[in-house]
């Protein structure tokens, strides 16, 4: 520990070392326990013990018990899918665990009458703490004495302007001292401080809701009710085909019966769709990463395709947080020489050793116009306490500062004029209402008065000559990006902690509402009821003076109105709303707390990346809807075939390895390629309904084709499939061929239009399926046989019948759907409960 002797002298002695130690022992030190809501065990358990994994694992175990490991290859999807889920959530957990609003550093406290440097976690309740320019406030406190302290609270409140603090005023942990210093007494530490409270709320884990995953889980839940009894019936029926339970167990035929039953069960579970959804999200996230967009939760890629309401924080999203010099406005009559002199004086006034943000903006703006430092005899640097600065050039004295301060110092008659100040202040207010930051330039002709640099008094003989107008620097891509969202039908609102007039002016500049004037409102007038707030928000485009809790309430109110809400932001004050939103988006320069709870982070802070994220989400959603039909077709025909097998008491017409082979070539691999294809179609609600409508005709056609093959072909060929293993294998090989043909038909339907690379894709996988049967290793592993002789003729007949059934089902299905919908529409609407 070290002491400082450069601090202002004060009479307060602070706590004694013994008192500080006692309070630390009592748990009143500035320590925050690091914890998240989910442990590694919880994450592993949640991803391993799922309904999908349970069904697939049970089926895999049954097959392995029989010794037919080749028929159990379908189980590898569990390992891949579970691994992706665990890795993704562990990454999110590490991010949440590292969440911290406060930057760990050392601070100066006053104990036993001396100033001592301690670590942030050694500060205790009641300590006297020095806050100096550049410090981040480590704990909540109240000001005892101040020497011009100004705080940047934008990360906590969203207010972009610095706040000047007086004695007795509260200061909150997480804010930053911009200038001046103060001695404060600590009033809350650790988990009781403002920053820690926000952090704790933000650390609560919330899984992103995915329409795709919800649809898939709905299918899985439905299939569970179907699979369990059907599996039992399948095993019972397959045992009967080999002579009953006693015979099956005595001869070992039970193994084949179990494998046959599993073939039906596995076919009903769209295991590839679960895996493909995870992989597709992961690939989309990698593509977005190349565009400097970090996706922290894979499911969030999909969510932006559904977003119809985008809440924007002003600072850091539409503006970059900096100040830009706009223009110099001369007052009264003036010549070009007067303008030139005033402009040069503005540059010289700002040309200090450590200019503030406004000074830097003036230097940058005028520097681009060729201005350089001029001759200065004396200077009074800017002070946040005085709110003005001055220079003497030998021929004139120039003043720059807050208009109300300079006008008040000029006297009632304004150097003898007696008029014009009311008009001047009206002009200042008019510019301020447009969201501009206004400074007044005043001039006193002649040499500087005696004691100019020492007395620090503004000369009442000066006269106002010009206004300097600055504004928040708007991101160059903001207007273009907002225009894109308007075209896409996404309602954008600006929600900020700043002055509603200032925010409204910026909203006008970026054409937030197009040609319509944006409606601005002060959040202090908002109702606290979410339902009333939601109705009010329908007519409001800009909200200012919004507190962090209100931002969260606004998101909840929009949810209550049925919106899918995305929220952008960069401050800690945005973290609760970002957490509550369907999709949280943090800018690259955001506070660690905000980035930790967001699902998407725009790493380089460019607002213009959002359309790319939306497009990628739409690609995922539209393509996954396309390929989901492929997997659901397999579910439909597997359930239909299983039911037919149980009712007719025949052996199952194909093996699990057959469905693995056919599924890989007509569903799994092609689906992955199709899922990555360009697609910018806007998402329309009703994903599951459309997928089911697509899958039913193809699934019914495939199921009928395979069942008719199994029922009719043995009679034509004279096969005894109950007594002869060779005849049963011939039937299963033929059924696999029929299954493959129907799979190619369904793939061709999904891949439409076929007059492009999609047609080549279908042809390539059809050729690969045929070629595999001629490769000895592949044929042996998957039990594939090329039909020959009479079997080839019978197979050709079966294929022709299957093609006919497929096209008949496609023709009949739309008519049946329209008939059902017409019947449903004729039903009287249910009475309202009101």
Automatic annotation (TrEMBL):
<feature type="transmembrane region" description="Helical">
    <location>
        <begin position="219"/>
        <end position="237"/>
    </location>
</feature>
<feature type="transmembrane region" description="Helical">
    <location>
        <begin position="627"/>
        <end position="652"/>
    </location>
</feature>
<dbReference type="InterPro" id="IPR001757">
    <property type="entry name" value="P_typ_ATPase"/>
</dbReference>
<dbReference type="InterPro" id="IPR008250">
    <property type="entry name" value="ATPase_P-typ_transduc_dom_A_sf"/>
</dbReference>
<dbReference type="Pfam" id="PF00122">
    <property type="entry name" value="E1-E2_ATPase"/>
</dbReference>
<protein>
    <submittedName>
        <fullName>HAD-IC family P-type ATPase</fullName>
    </submittedName>
</protein>
<dbReference type="InterPro" id="IPR023214">
    <property type="entry name" value="HAD_sf"/>
</dbReference>
<dbReference type="InterPro" id="IPR023298">
    <property type="entry name" value="ATPase_P-typ_TM_dom_sf"/>
</dbReference>
<feature type="domain" description="P-type ATPase A">
    <location>
        <begin position="106"/>
        <end position="200"/>
    </location>
</feature>
<keyword id="KW-0812">Transmembrane</keyword>
<dbReference type="InterPro" id="IPR059000">
    <property type="entry name" value="ATPase_P-type_domA"/>
</dbReference>
<keyword id="KW-1133">Transmembrane helix</keyword>
<dbReference type="InterPro" id="IPR036412">
    <property type="entry name" value="HAD-like_sf"/>
</dbReference>
<dbReference type="InterPro" id="IPR018303">
    <property type="entry name" value="ATPase_P-typ_P_site"/>
</dbReference>
<feature type="transmembrane region" description="Helical">
    <location>
        <begin position="729"/>
        <end position="748"/>
    </location>
</feature>
<feature type="transmembrane region" description="Helical">
    <location>
        <begin position="48"/>
        <end position="66"/>
    </location>
</feature>
<dbReference type="GO" id="GO:0005524">
    <property type="term" value="F:ATP binding"/>
</dbReference>
<dbReference type="InterPro" id="IPR023299">
    <property type="entry name" value="ATPase_P-typ_cyto_dom_N"/>
</dbReference>
<feature type="transmembrane region" description="Helical">
    <location>
        <begin position="257"/>
        <end position="283"/>
    </location>
</feature>
<dbReference type="InterPro" id="IPR044492">
    <property type="entry name" value="P_typ_ATPase_HD_dom"/>
</dbReference>
<dbReference type="Pfam" id="PF00702">
    <property type="entry name" value="Hydrolase"/>
</dbReference>
<dbReference type="GO" id="GO:0005886">
    <property type="term" value="C:plasma membrane"/>
</dbReference>
<feature type="transmembrane region" description="Helical">
    <location>
        <begin position="760"/>
        <end position="779"/>
    </location>
</feature>
<feature type="transmembrane region" description="Helical">
    <location>
        <begin position="658"/>
        <end position="679"/>
    </location>
</feature>
<keyword id="KW-1278">Translocase</keyword>
<keyword id="KW-0472">Membrane</keyword>
<feature type="transmembrane region" description="Helical">
    <location>
        <begin position="691"/>
        <end position="717"/>
    </location>
</feature>
<dbReference type="GO" id="GO:0016887">
    <property type="term" value="F:ATP hydrolysis activity"/>
</dbReference>
<feature type="transmembrane region" description="Helical">
    <location>
        <begin position="72"/>
        <end position="90"/>
    </location>
</feature>
<feature type="transmembrane region" description="Helical">
    <location>
        <begin position="791"/>
        <end position="813"/>
    </location>
</feature>
């Amino acid at each position: 520990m070290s002491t400082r002797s450069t601090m202002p002298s004060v009479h307060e002695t602070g706590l004694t070392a013994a008192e500080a130690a006692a309070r630390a022992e009592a748990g009143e030190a500035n320590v925050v326990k690091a914890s998240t809501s989910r442990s590694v065990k919880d994450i592993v358990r949640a991803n391993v013990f799922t309904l999908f994994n349970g069904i697939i694992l049970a089926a895999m175990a049954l097959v392995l018990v029989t010794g037919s490991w080749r028929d159990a290859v379908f189980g590898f999807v569990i390992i891949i899918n579970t691994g992706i889920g665990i890795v993704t959530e562990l990454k999110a957990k590490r991010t949440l665990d590292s969440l911290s609003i406060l930057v760990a550093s050392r601070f100066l406290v006053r104990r036993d009458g001396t100033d001592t440097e301690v670590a942030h976690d050694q500060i205790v309740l009641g300590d006297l703490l020095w806050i100096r320019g550049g410090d981040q406030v480590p704990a909540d406190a109240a000001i005892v004495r101040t020497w011009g302290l100004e705080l940047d609270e934008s990360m906590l409140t969203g207010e972009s302007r610095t706040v000047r603090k007086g004695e007795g005023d509260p200061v909150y942990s997480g804010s930053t001292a911009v200038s001046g210093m103060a001695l404060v007494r600590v009033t809350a530490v650790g988990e009781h401080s403002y920053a820690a409270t926000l952090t704790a709320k933000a650390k609560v884990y919330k899984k992103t809701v995915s329409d795709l995953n919800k649809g898939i889980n709905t299918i899985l839940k439905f299939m569970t009710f179907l699979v369990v009894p059907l599996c039992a019936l399948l095993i019972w029926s397959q045992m009967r085909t080999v002579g009953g339970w006693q015979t099956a167990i005595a001869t070992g035929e039970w193994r084949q019966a179990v494998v046959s039953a599993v073939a039906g069960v596995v076919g009903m579970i769209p295991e590839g769709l679960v895996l493909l959804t995870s992989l597709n999200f992961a690939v989309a996230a990698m593509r977005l990463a190349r565009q400097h967009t970090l996706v922290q939760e894979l499911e969030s890629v999909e969510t932006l395709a559904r977003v119809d309401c985008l809440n924007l924080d002003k600072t850091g999203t539409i503006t970059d947080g900096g100040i830009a010099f706009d223009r110099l406005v001369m007052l009264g009559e003036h010549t070009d020489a007067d303008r030139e002199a005033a402009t040069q004086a503005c540059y010289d006034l700002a040309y200090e050793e450590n200019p503030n943000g406004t000074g830097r903006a003036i230097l940058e703006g005028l520097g681009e116009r060729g201005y350089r430092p001029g001759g200065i005899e004396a200077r009074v640097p800017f002070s946040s306490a005085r709110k003005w600065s001055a220079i003497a050039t030998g021929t004139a004295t120039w003043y720059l500062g807050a208009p109300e301060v300079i006008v008040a110092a000029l006297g009632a008659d304004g150097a003898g004029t007696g008029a014009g100040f009311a008009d001047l202040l009206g002009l200042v207010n008019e510019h301020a209402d447009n969201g501009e930051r206004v400074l007044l330039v005043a001039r006193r002709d002649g040499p500087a008065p005696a004691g100019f640099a020492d007395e620090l008094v503004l000369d009442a003989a000066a006269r106002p000559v010009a206004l300097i107008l600055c504004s928040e620097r708007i991101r160059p891509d903001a207007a273009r990006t907002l225009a894109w969202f308007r075209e896409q039908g996404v309602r954008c609102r600006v929600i900020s902690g700043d002055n509603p007039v200032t925010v409204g002016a910026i909203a006008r500049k970026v054409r937030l509402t197009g040609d319509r004037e944006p409606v601005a409102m002060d959040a202090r007038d908002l109702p606290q009821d979410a339902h009333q707030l939601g109705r009010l928000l329908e007519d409001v485009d800009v909200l200012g003076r919004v507190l962090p809790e209100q931002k969260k309430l606004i998101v909840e109110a929009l949810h209550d109105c049925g919106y899918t809400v995305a929220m952008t932001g960069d401050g800690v004050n945005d973290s609760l709303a970002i957490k509550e939103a369907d999709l949280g988006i943090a800018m690259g320069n955001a506070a660690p707390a905000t980035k930790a709870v967001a699902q998407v982070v725009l790493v380089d802070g460019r607002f213009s990346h959002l359309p790319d994220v939306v497009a990628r989400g739409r690609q995922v959603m539209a393509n996954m809807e396309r390929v989901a039909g492929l997997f659901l077709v397999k579910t439909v025909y597997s359930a239909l075939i299983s039911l037919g097998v149980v009712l007719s008491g025949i052996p199952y017409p194909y093996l699990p390895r057959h469905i693995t082979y056919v599924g890989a070539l007509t569903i799994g691999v092609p689906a992955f390629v199709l899922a990555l294809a360009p697609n910018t179609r806007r998402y329309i609600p009703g994903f599951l309904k459309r997928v089911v409508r697509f899958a039913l005709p193809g699934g019914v056609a495939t199921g009928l084709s395979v069942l008719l093959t199994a029922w009719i072909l043995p009679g034509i060929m004279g096969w005894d499939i109950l007594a002869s293993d060779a005849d049963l294998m011939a039937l299963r090989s033929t059924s696999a061929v029929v299954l493959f043909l129907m799979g190619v038909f369904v793939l061709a339907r999904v891949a439409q239009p076929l007059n492009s690379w999609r047609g080549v894709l279908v042809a390539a996988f059809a050729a690969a399926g045929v070629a595999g049967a001629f490769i000895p290793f592949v044929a042996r592993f998957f039990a594939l046989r090329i039909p020959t002789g009479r079997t080839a003729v019978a197979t050709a007949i079966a294929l022709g019948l299957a093609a006919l059934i497929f096209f008949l089902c496609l023709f009949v299905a739309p008519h049946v759907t329209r008939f059902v919908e017409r019947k449903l529409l004729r039903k009287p609407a249910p009475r309202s409960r009101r």
